[in-house]
Amino acid sequence: MKMNKIKAMCGGIFCAVLLLCTAACGASADPGTQAGAERAEQSAGTDPAAAEHLSIPDWDNLGEPDPIPLTYAEQFTMDRYDAGYVLITVADRDRFLVVPEGMSAPDGMDEDVAVIQQPLTDIYLVASAVMDMFRSIDGLDAIRLSGTDADGWCMDEVTAAMKEGDILYAGKYNAPDYELILSEGCDLAIENLMIDHSPEVKEELASFGIPVMVDYSSYESHPLGRVEWVKLYGVLLGKEEEAEAAFNGQARILEAVGEKNTGEDPGQEDAATVAFFYITSNGAVNVRKSSDYVPKMIGLAGGKYIFDDLGDADSHSSTVTMQPEEFYAGAKDADYIIYNSTIDGELQTVDELIQKWGLLADFKAVKDGHVYCTTQNLYQESMAIGVMIGDIHKMLGGDGQMQYLYRLED
Fold first, then answer.
1. pTM (predicted TM-score)
2. Sequence-distant (≥ 6) Cβ neighbours of residue 224 within 8 angstroms
C-alpha cells in the first residue's frame, strides 16, 4: 500500500514547526550576538523543503496568475501563479488548486477551492474517456482504481494493468467501494457526468478528504476541444510537455487534411453527404444530433452530415432516436453511411447490416458500395479524434489506410 499523502504532508508540517522552534531557541539563547543569528540562519537553511514549509504564502497575496493558453477547450481554464500553484476551474463552477510536491496549500484559501496535492499516485478514475489521455502522457501509473472492470476496457495496456493488480476495480460511479478507496489512500477521484445522478457519492468522497473532479470534455463544442483536456491532466501529473505533444499530434492531423476542409464551410453544396447511425435493439435508429462533435468531425474532414438541423442544439444530449421511416426519408440519399459499432459490436459485411433493417438495401450508399463501420475501441480512445477526422477524409477520398473505420464487404 502506498503512503497516504495527507499523513506525509502533516508530518512535513510538524517537522517544519519543530525546526522553526529550534531556530528561534538558538537565536534567543545568544541574543544580540552574531553567533546566535548565524545558528538560526543555518538551522533554517539545512533543509530546503522544510524551509519552504516555513514560508506558507497567503491566498490573498499570491498575486495575479498567468492564464495557461488553450486553443479549443472552453469547459475549463488554468491559471498559474508565480509560486508554482495552478488554479483549475471546471465548467465555470468547480475550482481546484494544484499544489506542487514539497509545498503546502496557501493560508486563507477560499472555501470552495479543493486542494490537489502532488504527486498523484492513487487516482480513482471513473471517466473512461480520460484513461486514454493518461495513457498518451505515460501516466497510467498514477491510476490505482478504476470505475470500469478489466473486461470493459478496449485498451490492452489497461486490461493488462488490471489483471496484474496494478489497477484495481473500485466500483462504478454510483456504487464505489469506499473501503477499498480509503485503504488505497486515494488522492483524487475523476468522475464522468453521470455523477450528477448520484450526488451523494460525490459528497461522501469529499467527506473523506478526497477531491472530486468531473470531466466535462464531452461538452466541448469543437472536437479537438475534447482532446485538449489532456493538458489539464498533464498539469495534474506534472507532465505538461508530454500533454502538449499529445495534443499537437492530433492537431497536426487536422491541419494535414487541408485548409479547404477545415470546416469553415462544411455545408458546401458539392460536399459528399454522410449518415452516422446504429440500429437499436427495438428497431429504432440512433443518430447524432447536428450540433454534436461527430457531425463536426465529418465537416472538418470535408464532408457534410446528412441532417442539417436535427436535435436541440442547447441540449447536452448527443443523440436523437428516430423512427425507421423518418431515418429512411432523411438518409436514403446519403453518399456514405457509417455504422456505429459501439453498442452492438462490429459488422463485417453489408448483408449483416441489411439483416438489421431490410430497407437499408435501398440506400444510395449501399448501392454504391460506400458502407463503413467504426471499430469498437473508438470511443474509449479519446485521443484519437484527429486520427478519426483523417480517417473520414480518407474515406471520402477513397484511398488510404484507416485506423478507426473500415469498409464493409459486399
1. 0.83
2. 71, 72, 247, 250, 251, 254, 385, 386
**Three-state DSSP class for residue 57:** coil
Structural domain of 360? 258-407
110: cell is: 477560499
Q: Where are the beta strands (DSSP E) in 241-347?
A: 273-279, 285-288, 304-305, 319-322, 336-339
What does the pLDDT read at residue 116? 98
| Helix residue ranges, H only, 192-292 | 199-207, 223-227, 229-237, 240-257
Retrieve residue 345's grid coordinates: 459490436
Query: What span, in angstroms and rounded, lies between the C-alpha atoms of 288 and 384?
Result: 19
Rounded Cα–Cα distance for residues 394 and 56 (Å): 55
Dihedral, CA atoms, 398, 399, 403, 404, nearest 10 degrees? 0
Categorize the per-residue pLDDT at 6 as very low, low, confident or very high, splitting at 50, 70 and 90: very low
- Tallying the residues shown for the chain, one arrives at 410
* Shared domain check, 287 and 204: no
Pair 144, 288 in one domain? no
Amino acid at 332: K
- The CATH number of the domain holding residue 155 is 3.40.50.1980
Give the three-state DSSP class for 194: helix
- Answer yes or no: do 185 and 327 share one domain: no
Same domain, 31 and 71: no
C-alpha cell, 180: 477499498
pLDDT tens profile 76-118: 999 999 999 999 999 999 999 999 999 999 999 999 999 999 9
CB atoms within 10 A of CB 314: 6
What average pLDDT does this structure show over 122-141?
97
d(CA 329, CA 138): 47
CB 134 within 8 Å of CB 199: no
pLDDT digits (tens, 9 = 90+) for 139-176: 999 999 999 999 999 999 999 999 999 999 999 999 99
Q: Count structural domains, the chain.
A: 3
Residue 307 and residue 395 share a domain: yes
